[in-house]
Automatic annotation (TrEMBL):
<dbReference type="InterPro" id="IPR016966">
    <property type="entry name" value="Thiamin_pyrophosphokinase_euk"/>
</dbReference>
<keyword id="KW-0067">ATP-binding</keyword>
<dbReference type="InterPro" id="IPR007371">
    <property type="entry name" value="TPK_catalytic"/>
</dbReference>
<comment type="pathway">
    <text>Cofactor biosynthesis; thiamine diphosphate biosynthesis; thiamine diphosphate from thiamine: step 1/1.</text>
</comment>
<dbReference type="GO" id="GO:0004788">
    <property type="term" value="F:thiamine diphosphokinase activity"/>
</dbReference>
<dbReference type="Pfam" id="PF04263">
    <property type="entry name" value="TPK_catalytic"/>
</dbReference>
<dbReference type="GO" id="GO:0016301">
    <property type="term" value="F:kinase activity"/>
</dbReference>
<feature type="domain" description="Thiamin pyrophosphokinase thiamin-binding">
    <location>
        <begin position="183"/>
        <end position="249"/>
    </location>
</feature>
<dbReference type="InterPro" id="IPR036759">
    <property type="entry name" value="TPK_catalytic_sf"/>
</dbReference>
<dbReference type="GO" id="GO:0009229">
    <property type="term" value="P:thiamine diphosphate biosynthetic process"/>
</dbReference>
<dbReference type="GO" id="GO:0006772">
    <property type="term" value="P:thiamine metabolic process"/>
</dbReference>
<dbReference type="InterPro" id="IPR006282">
    <property type="entry name" value="Thi_PPkinase"/>
</dbReference>
<keyword id="KW-0808">Transferase</keyword>
<dbReference type="GO" id="GO:0005524">
    <property type="term" value="F:ATP binding"/>
</dbReference>
<comment type="similarity">
    <text>Belongs to the thiamine pyrophosphokinase family.</text>
</comment>
<protein>
    <recommendedName>
        <fullName>Thiamine pyrophosphokinase</fullName>
        <ecNumber>2.7.6.2</ecNumber>
    </recommendedName>
</protein>
<dbReference type="Pfam" id="PF04265">
    <property type="entry name" value="TPK_B1_binding"/>
</dbReference>
Length: 258
């Protein structure tokens, strides 16, 4: 079975060169308080989208992260490439501001069956060929965790809807991504910015057999299911974690405070 490598280098000020194929990042900003490292994610991304009300957050909160600077200078510097959603949360002044700067606006108000995040992922998948050309595209989603629980579950569901894409859900406190059962996984821990708290969660279906290395409480052909054992409150012990499982698992790790 093929090995899939994972590394949260997007949380580092500069992304180190490494041996494997490099990743191309796209960023989706959701309608929640911007994480403190949002400017870093923005810098690393080659394509930046706001999901509906996420544009209000960029407009209102980016200037707060640069208190020494003029707010309109900051707003012009952090111009999203695309705003997509059902447009029931973005304010008119925000929409007008970014439209005047040339941001592409995609109004999908007729679709009330998929979330704004889902709509943004569809855009990246289908309409961003330059970014997408590389099979190593990685989509970072800011503001995906915490807040309203129905939204949080909707955001997790997007990982399953697009399980062939690399998508990382982020908050200030933790990140989550899917480990597809089609691969063995090697996770390189960026110990300066993440860990040690972590979890492996068998959401959706039980896992009959999962095996790990690099954790304080490793799994050894272990069954995991809701109503039984799930690996919450685990701890990474080194810089490398390996995971293999008969089902898709969610990997989550804490993000360190500065
Ligand atoms: N409190 C939250 N917690 C987690 N994710 C959120 C939260 N609020 C918004 N989001 C994410 O940001 C996206 C855009 O948010 P926005 O408020 O514009 O959506 P919405 O469709 O108007 O929400 P709703 O109508 O259900 O309140 C959502 O699709 C969701 O992915
Ligand atoms: C069974 C079912 N439950 C909830 C919704 C509502 N809904 C889901 S996504 C979305 C768009 C949010 O921007 C809305 C309104 C639905 N359509 N179908």
């Amino acid at each position: 079975m093929d090995l899939m490598h994972h590394s949260s280098t997007f949380l580092l000020p500069t992304i180190p060169l490494h041996h494997g194929p490099s990743l191309t990042y796209a960023l989706v900003v959701l309608n929640q308080t911007l994480p403190r490292f949002a400017p870093l994610l923005w810098k690393h991304a080659q394509l930046r989208l706001c999901a509906d009300g996420g544009a209000n957050r960029v407009f209102d909160e980016m200037p707060l992260l640069f208190p020494e600077e003029d707010a309109s200078d900051v707003r012009r510097r952090y111009k999203p490439d695309v705003i997509k959603g059902d447009m029931d949360s973005i304010r008119k002044e925000v929409l007008d501001f970014y439209r005047s700067l040339g941001t592409e606006i995609i109004d999908k108000s007729h679709d009330q069956d998929t979330t704004d995040l889902h709509k943004c992922i569809t855009y990246i998948r289908d309409f961003a060929p330059d970014v997408n050309k590389s099979s190593q595209l990685c989509i970072l989603v800011a503001g995906a965790l915490g807040g309203r629980y129905d939204h949080e579950m909707g955001n997790l569901n997007v990982l399953y809807c697009f399980s062939a894409l690399r998508i990382v859900l982020l908050s200030d406190d933790s990140l989550i991504y899917l480990l597809p059962r089609t691969h063995h996984h090697e996770i390189h821990i960026q110990t300066s910015v993440e860990g040690p708290h972590c979890g492996l969660i068998p959401i959706g279906v039980p896992s009959r057999s999962s095996t790990t290395t690099g954790l304080r409480w490793n799994l050894n052909n272990t069954e995991m299911r809701f109503g039984g054992l799930i690996s919450s409150s685990n701890i990474v012990v080194g810089e490398k974690v390996t995971v293999q499982s008969d089902t898709d698992l969610l990997w989550t790790i804490s993000i360190k405070k500065l």
